[in-house]
User: What shape does this take?
Amino acid sequence: MSIEIYSYTTKQAVEDGVLVKIDSPIAKELGIKFPVYLTDTVYRRYVEVPADAKGLQDLEGRLFDLLSMFAFRAKQTNSGYLTYKFVCMLRQDATAQANESKSELSRYHKEITLKAVCTAQDIDDASPAIFIMLPSED
Assistant: This one.
C-alpha cells in the first residue's frame, strides 16, 4: 500500500484564480514587508469597483482601504493570525454576508470583517506571506 501526498501550492492557487497576488506598491508604502494574497472572493467583493461606483471609487483606493486597515491592526499584534475591520461600498444589489454589518456612512457602505494569516507561502516555499480572506475561509 502506498500513500500519495498532494500539495496545492500558492502559485497553483494564483494560476487557478483561487488567490489574487497583490502586486501593488501600496503594500510596501504601508510598511507591509511580505507578499500579500487575497482570496478571489475578497478581491472580487471588496477590491474590484462595483459598476454603480465607477467614477466614485477606483481599484487602488479600495485596495488601499483594505490594506491600510490590515497594516494598522497588524502593528497592534505579534500573532500570525488576526481579524480586522474596514468600511467598504458594496454593489447596490449586493446580498449581505455574515462578515458585513451596517455602516453609518450610507446604506451602501458596510463594515467588513476579514481574517489575515501570516504563514509560509506553501510547502515548497517557507518564506512568509500574508493571506487575507473571509473569516469563514481557510
